[in-house]
Specification:
heterodimer; A: 645 residues; mainly alpha; two-stranded antiparallel sheet; two-stranded antiparallel ribbon; 6 strands; 4% strand; B: 104 residues; Helix Hairpins
């Protein structure tokens, strides 16, 4: 089968499965629908690997450089000769890499959900939503046109909304779904304005034409775009920062991160797929897609992005150390890790020797997808067994859930950056890129990686150790969750070995193979910091003791504010409820009630009064009507006479 | 033989016409109202024939028109009578003042 056809099938098969499951869901048995969804994604994952193999080893390389390959493209909405919204599929290193990540993790999550969601009332709709999400996410990464990306961007937003609010009888789930939707929508407003500014400046919406026009030296588009500036940044930088605002909303960067921890109200496999591995890295992907413009024409915007990323990485990691809901710990860990990718992009530049941050970011995206999905699925298995999200209900589960225990440990080692697991390689690449570009960010990165190791192992020890090992009353719980076990084991393989892929030779900013630097001396510091973090976690949480409580009491102010997520949610509530609602909401409500409604009601009652006044004319009496008629004729006759005299 | 002047005929038709109008507005019985309409139509017929005879004696259009009007008037009368019969069945009267239910 040809590669082009395969990539089209990859995109449309999940859509077909969504249509099938949502339209005929009532007639399909739940077990069958789970199998359909899983089979479809298995096939898609297989085709993705096939296409990736073809791209990287067969047709993708031209003269040693990976070039884009447009599979199909047609104009969907034409504005004028030069400006149109196109739909299409493009293969290039990052989109192919994303195809693998999305389809593979999605396949694992589909498989896992067969057990995890068993017996749910809306099981079929759950699979339909998962398929919809897979379709939208795949469409997002293969988009040829920034507007096509925007549309799929909203589609992933809506599927995320549907899945967060899957348990729609729970008020907290509804609130979380609304919060996620509103916050990302708010960010997408920035994205839309950014798109409009970019398309106004470059007179195109096509990604590759856009990049070409806004990076070529001496291009008239850049000259006109950078001519005016505001607050020291050129118009182009502002446009790109607005685009990044959309990405920051999806990728939960500070200060738009508030929706992601709440999004954990959704089913755990959904958190693994959407809120850990794929959708939340869409912002990283967006920046990577437009990376040449950022790096060549607006490095100042890139610096801002780097600082936002570094701050978010540290900020989220600090919060993660204090949370007690295991999914929330993972959520903040996700925010922190995505921030790593963002600042890796931010410290990267253009040209030989500067662009390793780009590759490092994509590499971390790739490895993170595996171990974070694994962590979430492992947490899901724990929750499935314990029926609680709270750490205090866990402990000593290592005997009860041996497979989960081992895979979770592997994932923790991977995310903590312990060699030779996957996270080590990608994190080293990021830190080395930061070291070469921006020392303060490097130190933040190293410190955060220590924190990461600490909170991950705090989580690990509190779930699986901390108390004497118990045989959980759900005796041999793992024996009847074979699909979950397989998914965990397969992802564990990824978490262990994904780091050995020579990523630099596949994905780089310019398409040329680069060598990711690897110095033993350099790696010692981060690894040591990580190991210290693990050690502290062991001392505090390896066995149950009162040391953690004593420490948290001694720094109670810091602990409390971190536990309450630095009160960001409260600030948002204050700003929206107290300020926006009172200053804008209430006046506009008053205006709407009195002025707008008044105008409408006034015109209606005016009509009523007028018709009341003239309705007597319609008396039902034939002769009265005839009198009107005659009167009209006489008037016409009189007019005629006047005219001719 | 000396002809009757045109103006006399026109005066006759005018008288007929206004008689019809008067009847239409003052009578209460639907049948009489219908008869008044016939009077109006016939005054028009007289006009047609008179103008044809006096102004264009070599043509026949006016006479034809009259014939058409008579035919259509016959049809119209049958319709009107049918309506009046229905009214009578419904209201037990053909007084025009009592049949005023089709109003605001």
């Amino acid at each position: 089968m040809s590669y082009d056809l395969s990539s089209e099938i990859i995109l449309f098969l999940p859509l077909l499965s969504f249509l099938l499951l949502s339209l005929f869901g009532k007639r399909i048995k739940p077990e069958i629908s789970g199998i359909i969804g899983t089979m479809v994604l298995a096939f898609v994952a297989f085709l993705s690997l096939y296409v990736a193999f073809g791209y990287f080893f067969d047709f993708g390389k031209v003269d040693g450089v990976y070039v884009k390959h447009i599979v199909t493209q047609f104009s969907w909405l034409r504005f004028n000769e030069n400006l149109s919204i196109d739909m299409g599929i493009v293969l290039d290193p990052i989109s192919v890499m994303m195809l693998i990540v999305i389809s593979f993790v999605s396949f694992m999550v589909h498989l896992y959900s067969n057990n995890y969601m068993k017996g749910e009332e809306r099981f079929t709709m759950y699979y339909a939503y998962l398929s919809l999400f897979s379709f939208s996410m795949l469409g997002l990464v293969v988009a040829v046109n920034i507007f096509q990306m925007y549309m799929f961007w909203e589609l992933v937003g809506i599927s995320s909304f549907l899945l967060i609010g899957f348990y729609f009888t729970k008020p907290s789930a509804i609130a979380a779904a609304k919060k996620a939707f509103i916050v990302t929508r708010f960010a997408d407003l920035g994205f839309l304005i950014g798109i409009l500014m970019l398309s106004y400046g470059a007179k195109t919406l096509d990604f590759f034409v856009l990049i070409e026009r806004l990076t070529a030296t001496g291009s008239p588009y850049i000259a006109s775009f950078t001519a005016s500036s505001f607050l020291g940044l050129s118009t182009l930088s502002w446009a790109l920062l607005l685009v990044f605002a959309g990405g920051a909303g999806k990728s939960a960067m500070f200060p738009l991160h508030i929706w992601l921890p709440d999004a954990m109200e959704g089913p755990t496999p959904v958190s693994a797929l959407i809120h850990a591995a794929t959708m939340v890295v869409a912002g990283v992907f967006l920046v990577a897609r437009l990376f040449p413009i950022f790096a060549i024409s607006a490095p100042d915007a890139l610096h801002i992005i780097a600082y936002i990323g570094a701050f978010t990485a540290l900020f989220a990691a600090v919060i993660a150390t204090t949370q007690t809901d295991i999914k929330r710990v993972l959520a903040y860990s996700t925010i922190s890790q995505i921030a790593y990718m963002i600042f890796a992009l931010g410290v990267a530049g253009w040209g030989e020797g500067n662009n390793e941050g780009y590759t490092a970011s994509m590499f971390h995206l790739f490895t993170h997808a595996f171990f974070k999905a694994l962590l979430f699925l492992g947490a899901g298995a724990v929750i499935h067994a314990v029926h609680s999200n709270e750490m205090k209900d866990m402990g000593g589960l290592r005997k009860a859930l041996p497979i989960t225990h081992i895979t979770f440990l592997l994932a923790c080692l991977a995310i903590a950056g312990v060699p030779p697991f996957a996270g080590f390689f990608s994190k080293e690449a990021i830190l080395s890129a930061a070291y070469n570009a921006n020392l303060p960010i490097f130190y933040v990165g190293v410190f955060t990686s220590g924190l990461t190791a600490f909170y991950m192992f705090r989580l690990y020890f509190r779930i699986f150790w901390s108390k004497p090992a118990v045989k959980h009353e759900g005796h041999g719980h793992e024996s009847h969750t074979w699909a979950m076990n397989i998914a965990l084991l397969v992802l564990a393989v990824g978490a262990v070995f994904a780091g050995f892929i020579p990523f630099g030779s596949f994905v780089s900013a310019e398409g040329k193979a680069i060598e990711l630097p690897f110095h033993l001396m350099f790696s010692i510091t981060p690894v040591l910091v990580g190991l210290i973090g693990i050690l502290i976690a062991y001392v505090l949480y390896g066995k149950k003791n009162d040391l953690p409580a004593r420490i948290s009491n001694s720094v109670s102010f810091v602990y409390q504010s971190a536990y309450h997520k630095f009160y960001i949610d409260e600030i948002y509530l204050f700003v929206t409820k107290k300020i926006l609602f009172n200053l804008i909401g209430r006046p506009s409500a008053w205006f709407d009630k009195n002025v707008v409604n008044g105008m409408i009601n006034g015109s209606a009652s005016g009509t009523v009064m007028f018709s009341g006044a003239i309705k007597k004319m319609q008396s039902g009496r034939l002769q009265t009507y005839a009198m009107f008629f005659l009167g009209g004729v006489l008037i016409l006759a009189a007019l005629l006479v006047i005219k001719f005299i | 033989m000396e002809q009757v002047p045109l103006s006399h005929v026109l005066i006759l038709s005018s008288i007929l016409f206004f008689l019809g109008i008067y009847g239409f507005f003052t009578r209460r019985n639907l049948i009489t109202v219908l008869m008044s309409i016939e009077l109006i139509l016939n005054s028009v017929n007289i006009n047609f024939v008179a103008f044809n005879k006096y102004l264009y004696p070599h043509q026949l259009e006016g006479v034809f028109f009259t014939l058409f009007i008579i035919t259509i008037a016959a049809a119209e009368v049958s319709l009107a009578i049918a309506i009046i019969i229905n009214l009578y069945r419904r209201f037990n009267t053909i007084d025009i003042d009592d049949t005023d239910t089709m109003k605001y």
